[in-house]
Amino acid sequence: MATSTRRALSSPNGFTLIELVATVAIVGILAALAVPALMRAKMSGNEVSAIGSLKAINAAQAAYASTAAGGGYATLLSVLGTACPGQSQAFISAELAADPSMKSGYSMVLGAGASGPGPLDCNGSPSHSGYYLTATPTNAANGRRGFATSNSQVIFFDLNGVPPPEAAMQPGGGGTPIQ
Questions:
Q1: Could you tell me which of 60, 57, 64, 66 has the C-alpha nearest to residue 125?
Q2: What are phi and psi of 98, to 5 degrees?
Q3: What average pLDDT does the segment 100-104 reach?
Q4: 166 neighbors 113 (Cβ within 8 angstroms)
Q5: Ranges assigned E (strand) in 4-125
Q6: 128/121 Cα distance (integer angstroms)
Q7: Which helix (H) or strand (E) holds 36?
Q8: Is-contact 95 104, C-beta < 8 A?
Q9: pTM, to two decimals
Q10: What are the tens digits of pLDDT across the range 105-139?
Q11: 10: pLDDT confidence band, cut at 50, 70 and 90?
Q12: For residue 98, which of 84, 112, 79 has the smallest C-alpha distance?
């Protein structure tokens, strides 16, 4: 009588190949569902960071205009990053004091826009009667919206990733402000 030795497909010592393949497939499906949600959350966080940076620069411009420039505004972020003589603190933090400033996947650029010249500031730098500040995503994975603001301190956005032009930020210009 011949006896055949047969090995069990399931053993108490481990998992079968089918069980492992099923587990890997389930983990893969869950990862495929989670990645787009994580990317949207990252974009949203970058956009919120850009808006916060624009608000900080707007506040710095208000302080600069009232204390250092006789009502004028800086047209370079590096000017806001420089303290007045006898002062130890600049108007904005060092991370925003570069021209252009890069933060959270956005490039922030400050300029005079359509404003005219203003008085010299406490350091002898020229100021202007207004400013135009933009935040542009460096690529589509960092954010979908482009932002812009000016001395009115209202932040506008465009869903195409390009900051709204100055004309769109004027009353009746058709720009979309952040609510």
A1: 64
A2: -105, 155
A3: 94
A4: yes
A5: 101-103, 106-111, 117-120
A6: 10
A7: helix 17-67
A8: no
A9: 0.81
A10: 999 999 998 889 999 999 999 999 999 999 999 99
A11: low
A12: 79
Task: Note the residue count of the chain.
Answer: 179
Q: What is the pLDDT of residues 12-71, one digit of tens each?
A: 678 899 989 999 999 999 888 888 888 899 999 999 999 999 999 999 999 999 999 999
DSSP designation for 169? G
On whether the CB atoms of residues 75 and 110 are closer than 8 A, the answer is: yes
Going by C-alpha positions, the residue among 104, 113, 107, 103 that lies closest to residue 147 is 107
How far is the C-alpha of 38 from the C-alpha of 138, rounded, in Å? 19
H or E segment at 134?
A: strand 132-137
- Whether residue 68 contacts residue 81, with contact meaning beta carbons closer than 8 Å, is answered with no
Q: Which class for 98: exposed (0-12), middle (13-18), buried (19 or more C-beta within 10 A)?
A: middle
* Euclidean distance between the first and the last CA atom of the chain, given in angstroms as a whole number: 87
